[in-house]
Design brief:
The protein is built from seven helices and eight strands, in the order H-H-H-E-H-H-E-H-E-E-E-E-E-E-H. With about 210 residues, the protein is an alpha+beta fold. Strand 3 and strand 4 form a beta hairpin.
Length: about 210
């Protein structure tokens, strides 16, 4: 999974500055039915009600919202593909997704609540519990300051915790639209590029979804 990341798309999430959530809701109804449309209604309410809250409250609410509403399933189970990055509409429409889908949805939702991109990074990690071999995993990191220890939003656990409390996670690299950070580095080691087709593709599909 993380081995596929060779770079990042130059495309940015500027389209989220003026999302058409009426369109998103209508598409949910059209593609997935009434239950999915109701999920988008609940999502819109979450975004609106949390906009003025402190960031910590936003993190907790967003993490809880997706972890409770969405079932973890692999891409093979949901999409019959080995690796598919779903949009928030697709994730909520299907009601299931994997770690990338959870992380992307939380990332977009926090941005729509007003959390700055410089505070958020999608992070690939190795997840290891007990004697089992580590597996590739994605989480969302929130950085109060660029050099701060991040808070981790994870579909594996219900609470938002400091990275130092997540001894089961080993950072590989993290990214947002502005850069790429290797391991626990505090400075970006690369500029975004247009080489990651899945990131580019999910951004385009989000625009088509009204986001």
């Amino acid at each position: 999974m993380w081995l596929l990341l060779l770079g990042l798309s130059l495309l940015w999430i500027s389209s989220f500055a003026a999302p058409d959530l009426d369109k998103t809701q209508a598409l949910a109804q059209q593609r997935y039915g009434a239950q999915a449309a109701a999920g988008i209604v609940a999502w819109r309410k979450l975004i609106e009600e949390a906009r003025e809250l402190p960031d910590q409250d936003k993190l907790n609410k967003v993490n809880t919202f997706f972890n409770r509403r969405v079932l973890y399933q692999t891409d093979s189970q949901v999409w019959q593909q080995e690796d598919y990055w779903a949009t928030p509409l697709e994730l909520m429409g299907r009601g299931a997704g994997d770690c990338e889908d959870f992380s992307i949805a939380k990332y977009i939702t926090l941005q729509m609540m007003g959390v700055g991109n410089e505070r958020l990074r999608l992070s690939y990690v190795r997840y290891k519990v007990g004697a089992t071999p580590p597996i590739a995993h994605m989480v969302l990191g929130y950085y109060p300051e660029p050099t701060s220890e991040p808070l981790i939003l994870d579909n594996m656990i219900s609470s938002v915790r400091l990275a130092s409390m997540r001894t089961d996670l080993t950072p590989v690299f993290s990214f947002n639209s502005d850069g790429l950070w290797v391991g626990g580095a505090t400075a970006s080691s690369a500029d975004p590029t247009a080489r990651l087709s899945r990131w580019r593709d999910v951004l385009e599909r989000m625009r088509q979804d009204g986001l």
